[in-house]
Amino acid sequence: MISASFTASPIGDHDICVIGSGPAGLVLALEAARRGKRVLVLESGSKRSDRLQQALSDADIVDPQRHDDMAIAVARQLGGTSNLWAVRCQPFDAIDFEERPGLVDAAWPIRLADILPYYDKAVDYLTAGANVFRAPIAGVDIDDDGVDYTRLERFSRVAAVQTAHAAEIERSTLIDVRLNATVVDMTYDNGRIAGLTVADREGTRRTLRVKTVVLAAGGLESTRQLLVLQKKHTALFGGNDGPLGRYYMGHVIGEVADITFGSDAMDAAYDFYRDEHGSYARRRLIPSDAAQRQHRLLNVSFWPVVPPVADPRHRSGLLSMVCFAFALKPIGRLVIAEAIRKRHIPDDLAVWPHVVNIVRDLPRAALSLATFLYRRYVARPPMPGFFVRNAGRRYGLSYHAEQSPQPDSRVTLTDDFDRLGVPKLRIDYRFARADAEAVWRAHEHLAGWLTRTGVGRLEYRQAPEETVDAILGLAAHGTHQIGTARMAARPEDGVVDGNLRCFGIDNLYVASSAVFPTSGQCNPTLSIAAFAVRLAEHLCNGERP
């Protein structure tokens, strides 16, 4: 059941109260309900984006060049940020849970084996086909294990979680979703959360008694709730010098090199394709665990992308058309996420060279564009991204690298308040030069592997000695929100334990990327969903509380 407001009808007795209706919140609610539990879901937004409610997430961002705007980092609406992204799915790697030289403050209280059994259900909930994340390339057998070239990322057939499971949520007698219900306070008493103060869109407040509470409001907003609680009860989570809000991570992303494939087989292997499980998938290039240890790399993955569309030197009429589409905000936002659109289109876009490209290449470009639009907007499931192969087999090389945990990269509360009286966040998001150096070493390792195996070649876009600075200059993120409520074996080292229960609070749990002590190379949503399934099992088995 979904109600438009917190006060639409009386709220019945419930076993679990979930704050937030993004992938974590809805997956947990669905799994717990399937196990017979009554679940109340409180969502601050409505079914569609609401500017007034979205403004509740406005924050003081110390360096806006490093951190994405909150309008794309947080989505206060039913389904959360699954409304904004294509939901790229990859599981954690075993090495992410291991102790690694040079990586400090990175210990997990669990191992991959503890979460691995829950990926099957997570893939199902996210409509990503099957828990299959490796695909050999037909006719290709490379006798060099320096790079894993068969690893897959998968894409959700229906990205918006609330849409994928609309029928089950609506008909369930055990799931009660309340929209426009913003939690503004938690009542802490004798080691438990006794109640929540909830405000509707107009600011009217109600108090709600709870048994078990799960914060599933995304990494930043879940951390914000804990910081507000800590402000009133200063001993919680180690106080101001404790781990809460610290170790804020995302991923180190960008492009500083191009890749040219040496054969049509390898060129075709890294395009989007639909596999036998019904969802789109795509291969990534990932340095092997042995190579990561040998070269002191952080976990990182690579994949080819279209050349920079704003640079008319690509001489492609289709890419120039795409550039104009991206530049027009109403159209561009329909095609790709706003954060990605902004990275592709400069303010001083050169128009006429792109016009020349289109005129010279018009017939072929028009046909290619029609094919892309059909695959993206008519076919089901739609193609989840934009990629155009070319005769030269030359592409940009995108990297998605682990960011190391740094205690001074953190979020805190400001002295300013949102319109409901909740303190706003101050986001001091930092990148370490050592991380950029690790990404450069990963490029060097990949370049050697490409040359040795004949798979292709790598060419930098700047002088090699300028690459680390280039990587650091491109470093900006804010949508993955990892580490600020990290799990640990001891309260001195983290905010939640291995079962995601907050230290010192018997009935408060956190289900978001904020609990991950390290970021790995993978996008976090699949693992968020897997941990939500695991937490639902834990709560439904009658263990604490």
Automatic annotation (TrEMBL):
UniProt xrefs under Pfam families: FAD_binding_2 (PF00890), GMC_oxred_C (PF05199)
MF-aspect GO terms: oxidoreductase activity, acting on CH-OH group of donors
Keyword annotations from UniProtKB, A to Z: FAD, Flavoprotein, Oxidoreductase
Cofactors demanded by this protein: FAD
Residue span, Glucose-methanol-choline oxidoreductase C-terminal domain: 405-532
Annotated ranges, domain FAD-dependent oxidoreductase 2 FAD-binding: 15-63
Protein name, as recorded: Putative GMC oxidoreductase
Annotated organism of origin: uncultured Pleomorphomonas sp
